[in-house]
């Protein structure tokens, strides 16, 4: 069996979660998220963000979280602004448009949005009522390119959005990785302060399924549960989500798992950098995009699975390597060994 | 702690499932339902229905299954026909309409549909193009009232639908209970023959989550996966669904669990019948609706949780009792004991 | 040529409208409803309802008005309450559901809604968040059955809706006929006071096309024009709508036309009543539903077109006769003559 | 009063249309497009395209035509490909997305699409089922930039679309202008051969309202009328549309009007070219984009209305001038006079 660096959802879940599922399995609980584990998970999250006025909702996956949040927040004629690599733009089969809303795409080099990126979009959407009205700014942290937002950047964007009446929504499918990146000074507490809505991704950070949507803007909380149910996202056995986030939130397991993934990626990155390898983008989370020769790709492919991300020229391509909460030292070391031998 | 007869999703899942989740947890697998467990689960289901041309898709829950199937099958101007107690009509927050489709409701005493119920609806929808076009007949088995379809009934309905160009879709959230009811002569194989699409419900029959959608009509299979993804229902860790259905399909565990639930309900039903209790409807699955006095409701409520379903008169109400794969003899016997003592 | 009593949109439009179209034809005007005729029409309507805070929007037809109003006012999980004969339920090809919203149907004998009809619907929709949330009450005046609301009735319904947080929306496709009915004490001014939104129908009352949506509830006015554009209802040459409503609003032409239609219908009704004819419902607007013998239907069909509405028994049916702003005395007298001769 | 070159919908309609509306006004006709004028208009269009198997449907406006066609043709997960200046992308308030479908935008210099533009989009949408499926290519002729398709270009695009299973849909809001452009060799008959669906725009070419949708691909004709009704676009008095297209189709009035508009624009263009004026794009239809000094803009603005389209530098801007079926020689000559005097 080859070891896979293809993504961060190749394995099951952290053992603590399975143990808890076993331990609580036969306890009878209320359905639809009213179980005690879900209540406890929500309590833990609200403690961590230090905002008792936020509300937490647990759903199964990222596309689901994105489409429920966006369709519940926007009026029919309002639209989303996203950086061009945004997951909602490229990898969700038009899930947002299927709820009736346009996404305006902004080209940015690093997958992040700044006020200066958004201003021209606002300026070119003033032909009322012939154009959609931009109303929600969608960002990811870490981004789809593996980059991260710093506190100052996020504050500047948040201030801008508030001054323009735009909602700020952070896709946190890899929020753990973003916040535990060695170059990040951002905290979960600050994320909750600076966004209207964000979510904590579980699926890509040690859970079987699950994203915890946190609505900080109280105007957007009302009746939110109706939207979850209507989109088919309200699990009868909400305990499955509750138990997972309860375990992930205990003792910062969530952040420990993400930090581990980042560290493993950085080990490989640094080993490659030492050998002079260049990268498609300079990332500090669990996704790296080294540019290597076709020969090296072939050699590595004998032992490892990964995506060839982008052809650079006839002789080389960028590959994408993703590490996870469960990427062990052995795999990393074995990969590095080949690098050191071949380069 | 009171024992709950409120529903069949109060507990976690059958131990076999948790054991399998543990056993396979660290195996790296392809994402999005391409894992080997999902493939094995689909294979087992196709063997059981004896139709290699059917396609199986695993999703998280019933509302999700209903909205994905219906929105993928209908054109914008086509609508659904459902019996009035249909789950899609009453308990899914308008999930079907949210995808753009009307549901025409038919009043029937037992929650089942017959050709004679549908004919008047077709006849009153001929003002082209001013009315929606009925195109899909939605039935549940067992129904929301606990009743079941027999083979002859389903065959007659199926023949009728085919003669009228209507799709027949069976909501099988409680299909196990329907097929293992002591009065049912219907088999899974026949269900697959007689419907265009149906699903095998896991959530209410021993799984943590999961419904297995089976598309028998090959015209409706094309590109179906796009719809699953677009509606946010394609789990990155599809293994979670795959492992559950793999286990439930082994050695007929799925049917054993449902049969157990039915048997426990019948024990209570028969004990009450012997004491002269009447029922709101004559059901043979895991839902029963006995009519009892307010005093007895109070006594039972000291030890058990259940829904008071419908007020009958000043002195009595129908209650709803639901048993599950995990309803033990102790709870049933303790309940019966009270009945026998009080009546 | 047979004379048609099939509907009130068989002819073109009132001559004043054509004259105005000719007169202003070559004046250059701003597009999209910013022309001076639209502005004048809106001013006249606001004067007539004596509410300077209402806003008026002109669109092409009734289905369009209904779907734009409803989809702009409701959140995704909110639904409409309508009497069973409601146009939106039966004759608009699922236009409302196509925008994502369920309509709850209430059976009422006369096609009107009263608080006592609505209360049970509210009471049966309290299983949050598993059911749609009723939020808008849709009524028609005159109704699809030709009946009308009196001031007291509308006031009671309006008070009820406000006390329950429900919007009240009146479909006024035949509002002229409703208000000029001999039994109506309701005025346009009161309609504007008592509803959140209503519209003045032009198509069925002497215009070529056009309905004037009036939004009285200021909370619902914001950004409404975006919805009109998005649904394809913002005419580039808004003058076509503006000129028509400008003419209809001058000197109460709108009400004179409707009153004429009502009077013609009442002549026929009274003539039939004198001959002992019974009616499906007791209407006082331009729709009547006499029950006559198959033989008489045959005789009348030689000279007139009308719909056979409902079979009563083997020997007789109810027919539907509709008169219009342009139904002349000759047609009416000729019809009555046959009645008097044959009965 | 200043003369307006702002658009081609400033005036009412061609006198023939008003005369016909007057002439036929009191004839009773069937509703909803079954009137004899609509039938005649459809017959005339089918004769002109020489395709008896095409079907024609009359609706009120361009946004309406676009949203009905696209939403009726696509399955929920399928999307549209459009050039970046496409009307559906920028000027319809998200009308297409509101029906659930994404539009993929392609940057092209002249607003036209070629196979080489589309191939990369197809190649980057192969991650099934995680991405939308491109299925319909939307083009405008003349384009939003005033450019036109030649026969060879359209044939090449059509062949490409057919080879890839893509529908080709031509927005013909200004089809008359496109086909009568002095540089166009394309005919209406060829348009009907080479596209699956197109429409003949009336609103911008002498009608009060109205676009005639022509469906050439017989697979897409079935049940189309349901979509028109559902979107609120089926006029009760369909005669209004029928009479207009009947008149426009008689003796090629439609093309004469468009040719006139083009000629008037070319007169201005040529006069400006002679004076050395440069243009934003080299157009041969009724839209021109001359680049002139701010001073000249000021002088022209004293007598004429037009849009300042794009700032070029501190001293000059491109303006947009649009001529119409009704732009008289006087206005054109007076404009040219100023040009000749000032430059």
UniProtKB/TrEMBL annotation, chains A, B, C, D:
Its cofactor is pyridoxal 5'-phosphate. Keywords: Pyridoxal phosphate. Transmembrane segments: none annotated. The keyword Cell membrane does not apply. The keyword Nucleotide-binding does not apply. Residues 17-291 form the Aromatic amino acid beta-eliminating lyase/threonine aldolase domain. InterPro entries: ArAA_b-elim_lyase/Thr_aldolase, PyrdxlP-dep_Trfase, PyrdxlP-dep_Trfase_major, PyrdxlP-dep_Trfase_small. Belongs to the threonine aldolase family. This is Threonine aldolase family protein.
């Amino acid at each position: 069996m080859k070891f896979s660096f293809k993504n961060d959802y190749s394995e099951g879940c952290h053992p603590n979660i399975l143990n808890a599922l076993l331990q609580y399995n036969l306890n009878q609980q209320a359905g639809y998220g009213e179980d005690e584990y879900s209540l406890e998970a929500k309590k833990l999250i609200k403690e961590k963000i230090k905002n008792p006025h936020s509300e937490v909702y647990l759903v199964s996956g990222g596309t689901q979280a994105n489409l429920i949040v966006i369709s519940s927040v926007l009026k029919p004629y309002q639209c989303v602004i996203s950086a061009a690599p945004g997951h909602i733009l490229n990898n969700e089969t038009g899930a947002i448009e299927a709820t009736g809303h346009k996404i305006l795409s902004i080209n940015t080099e690093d997958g992040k949005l700044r006020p200066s990126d958004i201003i021209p979009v606002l300026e070119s959407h003033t032909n009322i009522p012939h154009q959609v009205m931009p109303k929600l700014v969608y960002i990811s942290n870490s981004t789809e390119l593996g980059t991260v937002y710093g506190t100052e950047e996020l504050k500047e964007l948040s201030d801008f959005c508030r001054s323009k009446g735009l909602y700020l929504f952070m896709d946190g499918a890899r929020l753990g990785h973003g916040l535990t990146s060695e170059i990040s000074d951002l905290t979960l507490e600050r994320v909750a302060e600076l966004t209207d809505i964000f979510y904590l991704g579980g699926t890509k950070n040690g859970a079987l399924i699950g994203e915890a949507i946190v609505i900080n803007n109280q105007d957007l909380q009302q009746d939110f549960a109706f939207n979850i149910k209507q989109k088919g996202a309200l699990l009868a056995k909400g305990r499955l989500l509750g138990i997972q986030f309860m375990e992930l939130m205990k003792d910062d397991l969530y952040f420990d798992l993400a930090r581990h993934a980042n560290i493993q990626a950085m080990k490989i990155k640094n080993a490659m950098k030492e050998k002079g390898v260049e990268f498609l983008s300079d990332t500090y989370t669990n996704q790296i995009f080294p540019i290597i020769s076709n020969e090296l790709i072939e050699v590595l492919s004998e032992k490892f699975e990964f995506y060839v991300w982008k052809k650079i020229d006839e002789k080389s391509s960028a590959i994408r390597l993703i590490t996870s909460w469960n990427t062990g030292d052995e795999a990393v070391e074995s990969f590095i060994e080949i690098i050191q031998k071949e380069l």
